[in-house]
Write a structure and sequence with these properties.
Blueprint lengths: L20 E6 L4 E3 L3 E8 L4 E9 L4 E3 L2 E7 L9 E5 L2 E3 L5 E5 L5 E2 L4 E8 L4 E4 L9 E5 L2 E5 L3 E2 L1 E6 L9 H8 L14 H6 L3 E3 L19 E3 L18 E3 L7 E3 L8 E3 L7 E3 L14 E2 L8 E3 L17 E3 L15 E4 L6 E6 L3 E8 L4 E5 L3 E3 L6 E9 L4 E8 L1
Parallel strand pairs: 17-18, 18-19, 19-21, 20-22, 21-23, 22-24, 24-25
Antiparallel strand pairs: 1-16, 2-12, 3-11, 3-13, 4-9, 4-10, 4-16, 5-8, 6-7, 6-11, 12-15, 13-14, 26-27, 27-30, 28-29, 28-31, 31-32
């Protein structure tokens, strides 16, 4: 028997969402200096992003006492710093060991903009260039309590900047719609940063935007309402959007929709798609209480809607007559041999339903449209006179384990 497996791939594959790194460095100096005072070094950022660390090299062993790191805007150490951070004592055991201060706060750097870091260095010699070989900024040192520029000196240093993590959004129309929403694109640039996507907690409105791919929506882990109707979507994976409460994805071309991971969802309109599979068993079906909270109609190829076990959908739920509800659609959704090789007659029937098939018959199981088993038999001539009037599903199995589900009407 062919088994239809439903894979839940909760994959955090945001592709371009890993932060990259750029480093501003100057490592040409071979001389050493025993400053025992505050000193600073100007530098030019090589990318946009957040400052990760400031590092320079020791020329001797020793311990720099606990102190303060300051970051200034521009090639200067006067005025108010844009960032101040205390650092613990830093011990180095030999020459060329790094003296590094990791940044614990958020210091945003802008590409090609000049900044200066200042730190007090005592008890340790540090590596210097005495030829003023770095053109990106000036070295500063204190002189009688005043820090002054020393254009012929430069620290051997490294400044690391993490480039912003951005969400991979291949569909240009989807990306344009997100970038145009200031509540999402809070910094107003041309990308959606990972931090912007994660922080967003409202609704995303994408009606009639000619979107064919919603890759990138997985980054919006706290979105509560998604309105993406009237587009050209053929697939929709929302397994990572566990805060989602309302989904309107009607009037697309979606074939499979699995919302079992969306445990907060209580409103769905997925009508007018091309659904062949719909799993709404999210453990919250009882919360779909409004008259329009569940709409799955106009999906002619949808035969089974998977729901919570033990739940009976109210009459307000809207679906096609050809679709049934079940807590195990796998038992009803099989088509492993040629549909034309099996026939039912008469259909509709009032009493006896006959199965005609070329294969060796094994058994038949009849289900209500709610997915409840009502009859099982090993006979091809089935007495259904005791069934109520209406539409039923019959699952027919041959001796080789092939299974086919068909419909019949009891009059």
């Amino acid at each position: 028997m062919k088994t239809k497996l439903l894979l839940l791939l909760a994959v955090f594959s945001f592709l371009n969402m890993q932060a990259q790194q750029c480093t501003t460095s100057f490592n040409q100096g071979t001389g050493s200096l025993s400053p025992n005072y505050s000193c600073g070094q100007g530098f030019i950022a090589q990318c946009d992003g957040a400052l990760e660390y400031v590092q320079f090299l020791a020329a001797s062993a020793g311990t720099i006492p606990a102190g303060t790191l300051k970051i200034f805007s521009g090639n200067q150490v006067s005025g108010s710093p844009i960032y101040t951070q205390s650092h613990p004592a830093i011990t180095v055991s030999q020459a060329n060991d790094p003296i590094r201060v990791d940044i614990t706060g958020v210091v945003n750097m802008v590409n090609n903009v000049q900044y200066t870091f200042e730190i007090t260095i005592n008890n340790v010699d540090i590596l210097f260039d005495f030829a003023g070989g770095y053109s990106g900024g000036t070295f500063f040192q204190s002189d009688n309590g005043t820090i002054i520029p020393q254009p012929n000196f430069d620290l051997n240093f490294d400044v690391s900047i993490a480039e912003p993590c951005t969400v991979n959004i291949p569909d240009a129309n989807f990306k344009a719609a997100l970038v145009a929403q200031p509540t999402i694109n809070t910094n107003g640039n041309t990308e959606i940063e990972c931090s912007e996507a994660t922080a967003f907690t409202g609704q995303i409105y994408l009606y009639n935007e000619s979107i064919s791919d919603l890759t990138g929506i997985e980054a919006f882990v706290n979105v509560t309402n998604l309105y993406c109707a009237f587009n050209t979507l053929t697939s929709l994976d929302l397994s990572n959007n566990i805060a989602l409460e309302e989904l309107y994805c009607h009037s697309n071309a979606i074939t499979n929709l699995d919302l079992s991971a969306n445990t907060a969802l209580y409103k769905l309109n997925c009508s007018s798609n091309a659904l062949t599979s719909l799993n709404i068993a999210n453990g919250n079906n009882a919360s779909f209480t409004g008259s329009n909270d569940f709409i799955a109609s106009n999906n002619p190829n949808l035969t089974c809607i998977q729901i919570d076990a033990g739940f009976t959908p109210p009459t307000t739920w809207q679906k096609d007559a050809t679709a049934s509800y079940s807590d195990d659609c796998a038992a009803l959704s099989v088509d492993d041999f040629n549909i034309n090789s099996i026939s039912l007659h008469p259909n509709p029937t009032t009493s006896i339903l006959n199965i005609e098939m070329n294969q060796e018959f094994k058994q038949a199981t009849i289900y209500s449209v709610l997915g409840k088993e009502v009859l099982k038999t090993q006979h091809k001539n089935i007495d259904v006179s005791g069934l109520t009037k209406g539409l039923f599903l019959i699952k027919i199995e041959d001796e080789n384990g092939n299974v086919l589900t068909k419909r019949f009407i009891k009059q």
